[in-house]
Amino acid sequence: MKLGRIVGTVVATRKDEKIVGLRLYVVRDLSIDLGAKDSFVVAADAVGAGVGEVVLYASGSSARHRRHHRPLRPAPLRQGHWRG
Fold first, then answer.
1. Among 17-21, 29-33, 71-75, whose mean pLDDT is lowest?
2. Chain segment 27-66, per-residue pLDDT in tens
3. CA–CA distance from 45 to each of 9, 39, 66 (Å)?
4. For the chain, what are the domain ranges?
5. What is the pLDDT, as a whole number, of residue 44?
6. More confident residue, 60 or 67
7. So what CATH class is 2-79?
8. Could you report how far apart the first and last alpha carbons of the chain are, in Å?
9. Which residues contact 42 (CB under 8 A, 6 or more apart)?
10. What is the DSSP code string of 28-74?
11. How confident is the model at residue 39, as a pLDDT?
């Protein structure tokens, strides 16, 4: 799992039928002290997170199992307030 902040949205004109209805977000990686890193990912959201929120996201086989084998990875897992 990695820590990131949702910084924008992505629009797809065509999606695999397994991810229709999921929002796509640009997520910027964060350090443990919430400092922004130079890396970004595009993630499919099924939990209702929004732009500006800090999220945990998974990639690889962890994300596939979490999202019922949907074809996109990484996937935000949970939103919430970060208490550092």
1. 71-75
2. 999 999 999 999 999 888 878 888 999 988 877 665 554 5
3. 11, 18, 11
4. 2-79
5. 85
6. 60
7. mainly beta
8. 17
9. 10, 24, 25, 26, 27, 72
10. EEE-TT--EEEEEEEEEESS---TT-EEEEE-THHHHHHTTT-S---
11. 93
Q: Which of 49, 34, 36 is nearest to 80 (CA)?
A: 49
d(CA 71, CA 84): 33
Whether the upstream peptide bond of residue 74 has omega within 30° of 0, thus cis, is yes
Rounded Cα–Cα distance for residues 38 and 56 (Å): 17
Q: Tell me the average pLDDT of the chain.
A: 76
CA 71, distance to chain mean position in Å, is 14
- Which residues, 6 or more positions from 52, have their beta carbon under 8 angstroms from its beta carbon? 5, 6, 7
